[in-house]
Amino acid sequence: MTVLIAGGGIAGLTMGLTLHQLRIPFHIFESVSKPKPLGVGINLQPPAVRELYALGLESKLDRIGVQTRDYGFYTKTGLEIWTEPRGKHAGYNWPQYSVHRGKLQMMLLGALVQRCGEECISFGNNVRSFTTTASGVELNIKTDNGLKVAEGDFLVAADGIHSAIRAQLHPDEGAPVWGGAIMWRGTTIAEPFLTGASMILAGNNTQRFVCYPISKPDPHSGKAVINWIAERTVDPNTHVEKEDWNRQVGSERFRNDFKDWDFGWINVPELIDGASAIFEYPMVDREPVDFWTRDNTTLIGDAAHATYPVGSSGASQALLDTRVLGAAFREHGINEKAALAYESEIRPMANKVTLANRGNGGPDAIMQMAEDRCKGDFSKLDEMLPMEEREAHALAFKKLAGISVEVTNSSRNIL
Ligand SMILES: Cc1cc2nc3c(=O)[nH]c(=O)nc-3n(C[C@H](O)[C@H](O)[C@H](O)COP(=O)(O)OP(=O)(O)OC[C@H]3O[C@@H](n4cnc5c(N)ncnc54)[C@H](O)[C@@H]3O)c2cc1C
User: Fold this and answer.
1) Residues 76, 264: contact at Cβ < 8 Å?
2) Of all protein residues, whose CA lies closest to atom 1 belonging to ligand 1?
3) Using CA atoms in the order 372, 373, 377, 378, what is the torsion angle rounded to 10 degrees?
4) What are phi and psi of 350, to 5 degrees?
């Protein structure tokens, strides 16, 4: 029994580690020829951290990440709307981590190669399509040397937002959906702000700044790597380049919109000016689909449920998918029944999260609520948006995403 995994990103590598833990043979096919630590910051919620700990990666994760202490929403003038503790500070049994995506990917790859050997993953292998056969599944793969076919018993598609396998399962779907916003992402070496491990979002639905440290402070300079995202809604008729996590641009495209955002405790223009590189990415997601599994093939991670990067859902849910699917393989065997069990547990919730992140259900919608109620005069914030309402809004999303303290702490690690 061999499981073929298309894609060696966050989901694909964790799937490999999970199958190794279960002693199930697997092979990963990754399209890039040489793995590089690409991306900027992402957040891992406590349930995802719990699973990384269960994979024995606790100290490795702590070496590359920062335990997020709190998460705060601010008006565009820098006034606090809602701040809540995170991870262990919020009562979870596990921390929340802010981490560089590329470092996380390299950490997972390093652990996988250490445990399973280099031969468990083939780079420069672009999975084009699959064919269901009497005995399992065949992958059609393009390599630098031409085309090849790989045979296995089951296919787990972890090939990200542009998944070729999802396109084959859902041929009419087309490109990811752009909601009209553009993100500019960067990292800057700077003094940590607030608690030193705070994550903040300021602004509203049409313009916002998100910021958090992704390294511990340097013991000599006291400075840390600060991850930031500046986001603006633009005219929907604007031509946007195809989404590419690695397209570099200059700050002139957006800096002027944030020129007055010096709140005293954080100086946005200074952070933008100090960035080593800035990456532009149109905010896209995928329309939820009504199935992920067919015969001996299923989707996980962004291939299954690409969502806007708000609410820290993307990487966390990708990690959890692998663990739920692994548990289903253990219970039902490596077959469609297992994949359907995984899908029925995750898909309804993940689809709801995708839709919530588009609109008013996401945790950050509280910023637009403040904007709408105060109509520019934030001195009336307490009167216009009572604290109880802010608290209820924050709790509603955690329940929807299945990440409330009670649910997380009451469940042991999945495997
Ligand atoms: C280069 C890169 C940078 C990113 N940077 C950020 C970021 O800064 N912030 C953020 O929030 N999210 C970022 N993401 C997305 C984030 O990693 C995912 O949303 C999340 O972690 C879910 O992981 P995933 O494994 O499902 O998808 P991904 O992490 O996107 O991994 C998919 C993997 O599949 C590979 N792949 C794609 N097509 C094929 C194919 N046909 N055959 C074989 N392999 C294939 C890709 O090379 C990639 O390694 C980035 C993704 C990539 C690929």
Assistant:
1) no
2) 38
3) -100
4) -65, -40
